[in-house]
Amino acid sequence: MPLPSQPLRKLGFLTIGLFDQADPRKGHESTLEIIELGERLGFDSAWLRHRHLQYGISSPVAVLAAASQRTTRIELGTAVIPLGWENPLRLAEDLATVDILSGGRLNPGVSVGPPMHFDRVKGALYPDTADAEDFGHDRVARLLDFVRGAPATDFSGVEGFEVFSDRVQPHASGLGRRLWYGGGSLRSARWAGEHAMNLLTSSVVKAEESEDFAEVQLSHVRAFRARHPDGDRARVSQGLVVIPTDSATPEQRARYEAYAAERTPRTAAPQGPARLMFAPDLVGTSAEIAERLYSHAAFREIDEVAFALPFTFEHADYVQILTDIATGLGPALGWQPSTVTQVTSDGR
Prior knowledge:
It is a single chain. Helices cover 36% and strands 16% of the residues. It is α/β, with parallel strands linked by helices. It has a single domain, classed as Alpha-Beta Barrel (TIM Barrel), CATH 3.20.20. The chain has an 8-stranded parallel sheet. The chain has a two-stranded antiparallel sheet with strand order 5-6. Strands 9-12 form a two-stranded antiparallel ribbon. Strand 3, helix 3 and strand 4 form a beta-alpha-beta unit. Helix 1 packs parallel to helix 10, helix 3 packs across helix 5 and helix 6 runs parallel beside helix 7. The longest helix has 18 residues. The radius of gyration is 20 Å and the shape is globular. It starts with 9 loop residues before the first strand and ends in a 16-residue tail after the last helix.
């Protein structure tokens, strides 16, 4: 169990931003209102998931640009942008622009791998180059280079009335130290550490050395820090689904428990050819959830979290859950609400 002298330092939340296809604006507006609420409650960060060809946020960078103009302090992150859908140079420009607009509050999280259902979408996404695309870590390395100021071209200077730069503009100082890798394997954790990224570890991991979720996640955290230049100070954020019920109505509690029960069978053993392990959703009072977290081997190694909101709940449910996290669960973990910006000159 963590010592009282080692309280939770940063508390964040993650949302998917679902919407009704008949009225997409309402869902996007709900997401922005939830981020505004998070800032008022003192959360340190708000993170958006990424969904393509679904009824969830497909452009989190654009939504966070809007959020940056409706908030002043809370850090804004993506968890995660699948780079298989992106051009690293263009994405670097978008990220830098939003970071400038936010005053240095952007925390982009990315992942690698082929786009979901690639065989069915490759004709639209990469009609001429699908077989030549590299969906591995080199794609992240390109993004890192561009964000951190490496040349993108061999030309710079004046041409007629126009001035050209050889690196991505605007250049957002500090953004390169706020890039996160969403990893669920030892290989990814080691790679992120070697490239001085931060690590997002979520409720899904690969069962490689164990079939105990907490042990697997702990091995990833330690492997990451063993390869990172900052060692034990390297930033790791843990993302589990937590649903405190302190102020929930009886009807809400029943729905929350049914939601978790429906998802629980997949946590019993590794799933599919990739042997994916899923963490159980944590439903209960703040005190009960805090006790379960304190017994979680990986949680005891970190001081940042971005708790995931369930996918399919209503706006009022998210208000209740976030309020209980900020007023009950967070303090039970030693966290204190933020009132001033936590972003320093080195991006930490």
